[in-house]
Structures are given as structure tokens and as C-alpha cells.
Amino acid sequence: MDFELTEELKMLEDMAYKFAQNELGPISHECDVEEKYTPEIVKKAAENGLVGAWVPEEYGGAEAGCLGLAVITEQLSRVDMGIGLNVVAASFGSEAIYLYGSEEQKKRYLPPVCRGEMVSAGAFTEPDAGTDVAGYRTRAVKDGDDYVINGNKMFITNGTVCGFMVVQCITSPEEKRHNSFSMIIVPGDAEGVTRTKIHGKMGVRSSDTGEISFEDVRVPQENLVGQEGRGFYQLMHFFDTTRPMVAAQGLGLSQACLDVSVRYSKERSVFGAPLGNFQLTQAKLTEMAIKIEALRGLVFKAAWLIDEGRPDYTLAAMAKYLSGETAVFCANAALEIHGGYGYIEEYDVQKYYRDAKILELYEGTKEAEIMTIGRFLLSK
Fold first, then answer.
1. Tell me: the pLDDT tens digits for 75-88?
2. What kind and span of H or E run contains 39?
3. pTM as predicted
4. Is residue 134, in this structure, part of any structural domain at all?
5. 353: domain range?
6. CA-CA 20 to 30 A from 244: which of 9, 66, 116, 174?
């Protein structure tokens, strides 16, 4: 058993962190305050092979696999989880095309994403259907050689900046609900598509999140991804494969919380001694470090198994669950260690605290992960 990253992955890890420090760090505060999306960072990241890094070389990617993506995500999130999300999620939704799309679709959509020329999105969540993905209402009706789409999507990452999106639609309402869905590629600027940026988010404020409405949007039936009526099962598998990336966000954020807390504990003096001299402080730092190390092993193993062709999707759900819990714990502990200073804008800790909570909500709530893990345990 070898727990060491390969030399190539170590180089990727080092490069990703240096990129984050040089490119994300200087604009982090501004982008958070102004809710500013960063297309220039996505372009620079693509030039360094950090966008769509999981994509095979034949489609323009770095072929770093799921583990490589996790490594990149951790290092970017150590500096700014929101801007880091702009980079690693620039290809979000494209996973469905790679997993289920035709060869023509792969060659058309994946290379420009990897080059940073186009951003993709996965338009799945609806105003009344989040975790309950079978509750969707958006419909795609055949008309000649086209689909005509009507409906609404909510909380869509890259919603107002994407060049195209993979949309989950009802195509066969007469079928049982799990057999009624299909995935369809829709250009972001298609006629009838209205995109509205969501403002006032608590965290990851530099990441673009949008509400999308479809009003008689017409796309060719050749934009169907995979098989008609298999969209629900395709989406479940899609989330199985993307959970390690989201879990790696929490890993990076948690590591950032520990890094700044250790530094502050050495620099801050209370009662005539460094803050770190007190057992209560050491207890917080120690628990943070233990949780982070446990999470790193879980995230990397889940990602590695996918690359090995032996995926364990229950393990991926565990990684996602533990990631949210660890990030929230570490952000809270870091804020407590910083005291009043952690509560003001001048210190990054307050931003970590705000960013952390989303990890228990998106890409499957922690309750959804519990159901996934629980069903597996009870099926034995």
C-alpha cells in the first residue's frame, strides 16, 4: 500500500498552489466583496492545464484523472474556494458529455472548455426540486427534428457565464418518473433562455450562480446526451463521479483554516505568552489536524479508485459528507482561535466561515449523503 502521490501529482500539487497564491490571492478580497466572477483566471488556469484536468488528452485535457482534479481543487481552495470553483467547475456538466455523449459531442464541447474558451454548466436543480431530482418539471417536447424546452432551473453554477449547459428535462412524462428524464445540451445564448445572476450569497461569492428560465427553447434532437429516458440514472452516476472534487474543496478550505490558525497562535500573545501555549488552543489545532488528515485519505482514495476503474461511490459519498463537516468544524475553530479579529473583514477567517457551509448543501446535501450511505449499509 503506497499513500504517496506520484512525482507528477506532486508537481501538479505544487504548481496549483503557487498558481493560487499568485493569481487568486491578490484578488480574493475584491472578488468576494464585489461578487466578481473571474474569466481571466479561468483562461490563465486553462493555459496551465488546470481546467478540465480530468479530461483525456485526446479531448484537450491534461488527463490527470479524478485524483489529479482533487489535488488541484484542494490547492486552489486553500487560497480562495470561490475563485477556485470558477477554475475546477469551468468544466462542470461536461462530465455528462464525456460519460454518455457521442464522439461528435465530446470533440465539439470538451476541447474548448479545456482551452478556457468556453465554460460549461450542469442545469439540474429546480426551484422546487433539489435533492429530490425526480421532482423536476422542466419539459422537452419533440417537434420535428428538435426538442422544445420549457421550465426553470435554480442555483446553477456558471449559470450566467456558461457557453452551454447540460439540462435535465422530462422527455417522457408517461413513463415511470425515474424513466422519464433525459439530458440535453443547450447553448447558453439560445433564443428563449433567460439567465439571472443570484446576488447576496453568504459565501463563494466570486462563483457565478444563476437562475435560468427556458421559454420555447428549440434545440436539435442531436443534442440529446446518452439515451432518452436514462437521464435520471445518468445524473446519479454524474454526481457519484463529481463528489470527490467537491470533497476536495472542503479539504483545501479546512487546510487553510489550520494554516492561518497555527500562524496566528504563534504570533498572538495573551496573558504574557503565545496563544499556542495554552492547551485549549492546542486541542482545537490538534482536532483540526486529525480531521483534515482523515478527510484527505478519504478524498484521495475515493478519487483514486475512480481512476483505477474500481469506483466506490459510497466512499465518495462519505468523502463528501465528511468534507462538509470538517470544513464547518475547522472554520468555526479557526474563528474561535482568532477571537474578535476573526469576525472582521480584515481577516480571511470570516470568509472561510461563510464559504464552508455551502459544502453541506450543494452537490447533495449532507442528509442526501446519509441516505446514500445508509441504503448501502442496510443492503448488505
1. 999 999 999 999 99
2. helix 39-47
3. 0.96
4. yes
5. 233-379
6. 116
